Structures are given as structure tokens and as C-alpha cells.
Amino acid sequence: MNVPRELIVSKPFLWVNPSKNKELTLDQTDMERARADWDQFSPLLEALFDNPTIDSELKTLTGVHIWRPAKAHWLKEDSALPVAGSIKARGGFFEVLSHARELALKEGVITEEDRMSDLASRMDFFREYSLHVASTGNLGMSIGLMGRSLGFQVYVHMSADAKEWKKELLRSRGAEVIEYDGDYSEAVIRGRQASEKDPKGYFVDDERSLRLFWGYSKAGYDLQAQLPDNITEEHPLFVSIPCGVGGAPGGIAYALKALYANRVHIFFAEPLEAPAVLLGMATGKGEEIRVQDIGLTGKTLADGLAVGKPSGFVCEQMEEVLSGIYTVKDEALQAMQYRLFQEEGIKCEPSACAGLLLPYYMSTEAGKAYLEKEGIREEDIRYVYWATGGSRVPDGIFREQLEEGKQVLKEHPDIFTIE
Ligand SMILES: Cc1ncc(COP(=O)(O)O)c(C=O)c1O
User: Fold this and answer.
1) Residue 369 CA neighbour count, 13 Å, CB half
2) Mean pLDDT per 10-residue segment, the chain (419 residues)
3) CA distance 332 to 417
4) Measured in angstroms, how far is the CA atom of residue 32 from the centroid of ligand 1?
5) Domains and CATH numbers, the chain
6) Which atom of ligand 1 is nearest to the CA of 246?
């Protein structure tokens, strides 16, 4: 079995995907349909949250990385997405809204001609139905906040890694949080079982859901609308996205590749001890292999990325799309969280900072070889770092995290350097 040595010895590295296909053209039917559905949901989002779209700003970094020889350093601020404050809102909201519309049409609560915003006041109807979801935290928040706003009963099955404040927030909104000692994969199995026993239950399946995947994909159009027209193969985008089970980064990567083809290069970032998608893709085993099978713990302070077994569906979808995946130390995430706040005033949780580390990996032998093979100079790159969560972290906890990050940087000023 082809397990990269660096994974086994827990050494941060860039894995370059040997199967990336330069001739690839991707079918855009599903992503276009999802975009049209999002448009249809807009009046309902407005009625529920005074906010018709779930999108974030694209910011130009003014401190972090500016000394590097790139053409641009942009940050896609999904950490501040409306209502849920994380990338998982894109898929999570989409799935709940799609399910709510389907139920309402089936039971005659609305007709195809009615406005979706009428559903904002039909809690009496949705109260009869329940949603189940397994989560390391942020997907649960997205399903919980949207589900409860519409009136659903919501059960969030949480792994041991989930943060206490996320559980408290969900409980305060009337969601039921069920906690497990085990890891994320166990929470998924238990959540699926609970939902099967519930006749009016619906399971949001982070590992397999197509609704989630296409919901995330709208981000491709959102980013395209914010970018200049002059993205070319010589002046391409290098996009890096933190990755857990793979759904959110996978849906976004698919859409960007469909829209930009060879003008975009997409990288995922995973924790050293939980490189689930890297392991699934490098070995070709997809969801048939867990990080624990090669002696890793699956444990990381990056709670959103604490996943041991990838989505097999996403591993397949990414086979010809992805440029590579790099692994990061927890301490580097803490240090980047601190730097991002110090230099840009942007609030992110540790998981959300993994994307910002890509330039350090482009300076490694593997990174340089990739650039040479693709015929790209680093000074021509437009980096897009996907910041994936954090605006809802309570201030007291955030300040403690910053202190830890500051300490890491003080003790290890070279924490970002990859040998
Ligand atoms: C902050 C954050 N970033 C990235 C991800 C990765 O998303 P996925 O698990 O779909 O790969 C998550 C997942 O919960 C997350 O919470």
C-alpha cells in the first residue's frame, strides 16, 4: 500500500496528486442547479435572518505574507459567513432549506408558485419533523441554527473533539446535543442509526450527502464574482482550503475547477494527526482506510478538521481535480491564528488558519518541483486562502487562544518553516 512516509513519521509535507488531469472538463449541471436553488431560497433567508445571501468578503491581506513574491494574497472570509460563522453554513443551510422545501411541497404546505419566504412562519408544520446530524462542531451549528429557525427538532451527534461553547450555543437554541466519547466516524454511525429509528427524521450525512456537496459549490460562483477577469494560466489562482471529511473543500474545489480549469490550482490542508483525505487519496482506498490504521491518533486541536476517515465520494471527485494536500502542525495553526489577528484584525479559529500556510509549502522541494512542472513563477500566483470559521468564537476563549499562539511564536519563531 502506497502510504507516504512523511504521514507515518508525522512530518509536515506537501503531497502532490499524481492523478491531476490537465485536460479535465467537468459537468456543471448540478452546480448550476444548486445556484438556482440558492437564488430561490434568498427571500426565505431574508425573512429569517434579514440576509438574502450566504457569502463572505474577499479581502486583500495587508500584513501576512506580503513579503512573499506573489501577485496577490487574498483571504476568502467564510469565517464570517452570516448566522453560523463557518464554511459549513454553505452546505448545511442548503441541505436544510432543500429538505424543508421538499417536505412543504410534498405535504401541500406550499405549491411551486408560492414564495419560499412563506415557510419562515410555518414552525407549526416543521415542528413535526426532525433533523439529525453528526458533527465535530461547525456542521452541527449550521444545521442546528437553520433547523431551529424553521422550527425543526434538531439532534446533533457530537464527537469528543467538539468544543463546549458550540454545544452550549446549540442547546440555547433548543437543539438536543448528544455527546460521544469516540471520534467523528463513531458519531456519524450513531447519528445515522438514531435517524433511521425516527420515522420523521432526516439525516444530514457529512460523508455522503450530495446536497451538502452542491450547496458548498456555490462558493465557486461567489468567488468568481469577486475576482478580476484577468486570471490566466500564466497568472493563475492558487487556492488552499482546510479539509476535514472533505465535503466543503471538495464542493468548492469542484466548482472552481469547472469554472477556471487550468487557471486554478487547488490544495487542501489537513492536520498532521488527521490527514484523512490525503491518506484516502494517496492510497486509493478512499473511505476504506482511517488514519488510525497507520498509527496516527486522529487527535488535533483543529476540531473542525479532526476526522480520521474521509468521504469516499469526495476522494473520488477530487482524483483528477486536486493539485495536492499538505499537512500542518497544530502549533503552526495556533501561531497563524495569532498573526492573522495581529496583522489583519481577522478572527479565525485554529482549523480555519490551515489554508494560510500554503506559501511555505510552495517553497519546499515538492512545491518548487510542482511550479516548475506547471511552468508557473511564484511571483505570478494569486493566492486565495480560504478562512473557514471563527467569527462566533466567544471573546474570552478567543483571547486565550491568541495567548497560546503568541507563546508558540515566541518559543518557535521558525514554526512556519517546512524542511
Ligand atoms: C472551520 C472548519 N474548516 C474546515 C472544515 C472542513 O470541512 P469538511 O469537514 O467538509 O472537509 C470544517 C469542518 O467542520 C470546519 O469546521
Assistant:
1) 9
2) 92 98 97 98 96 97 91 98 97 98 95 90 95 94 97 94 91 95 87 92 95 98 97 98 98 98 98 98 97 96 95 98 98 98 97 98 97 97 98 97 98 95
3) 9
4) 23
5) 5-86+216-411 (3.40.50.1100), 88-204 (3.40.50.1100)
6) 11
